[in-house]
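> example.struct
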């Protein structure tokens, strides 16, 4: 029964989860990430670097954050970013399946597209674990750890981008098909 609610969700539950994901995201983007940016003297936090980062950037970021900023990252940003991937994955998995239930001609590709947020969330959790590892290892953060975290960041960013492009195109396509179907009546 629970699986059916995920793969054939109600619009109301989907909207509630989308709002929760957006609220969590906005707190990070408007509060914690700008605070980290200020604490580091303008160096972008890992979460704001979709095209990745290098060991040199990581060393400067973690140095410039100082102990207080690294603590803020661990105890403010990471908890929010622990909740966000689950909210993102669940809400967009359900939103895409909701759309699949309403656009039967594209149901199969949409159900495949719905899986991408789950993989993006897995990459985000991997990234978060590795960021915590980098924060705790500082000042002896191994380059191999930074490079692995960078791969997780790039994977998360890539999967999220591919998903959103596909989802937006699907919404546009669904809208066009609805308009065409109404004009035939």
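> example.seq
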């Amino acid at each position: 029964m629970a699986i059916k609610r995920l793969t054939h969700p109600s619009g109301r539950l989907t909207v509630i989860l989308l709002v929760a994901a957006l609220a969590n995201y906005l707190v990070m983007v408007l509060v914690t990430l700008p605070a980290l940016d200020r604490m580091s003297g303008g160096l972008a936090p890992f979460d704001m670097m979709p095209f990745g980062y290098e060991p040199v950037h990581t060393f400067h970021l973690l140095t410039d954050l100082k102990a207080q900023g690294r603590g803020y990252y661990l105890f403010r940003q990471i908890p929010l970013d622990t909740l966000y991937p689950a909210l993102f994955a669940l809400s967009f998995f359900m939103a895409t399946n909701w759309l699949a239930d309403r656009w039967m001609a594209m149901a199969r590709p949409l159900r495949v597209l719905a899986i991408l947020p789950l993989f993006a969330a897995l990459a985000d959790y991997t990234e978060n674990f590795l960021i915590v590892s980098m924060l705790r290892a500082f000042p002896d953060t191994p380059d191999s750890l930074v490079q692995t975290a960078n791969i997780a960041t790039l994977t998360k960013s890539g999967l999220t981008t591919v998903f959103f492009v596909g989802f937006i195109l699907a919404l546009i396509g669904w809208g066009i098909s609805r308009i065409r179907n109404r004009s035939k009546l």
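> remarks
Residues 55-102 form the longest helix (48 residues).
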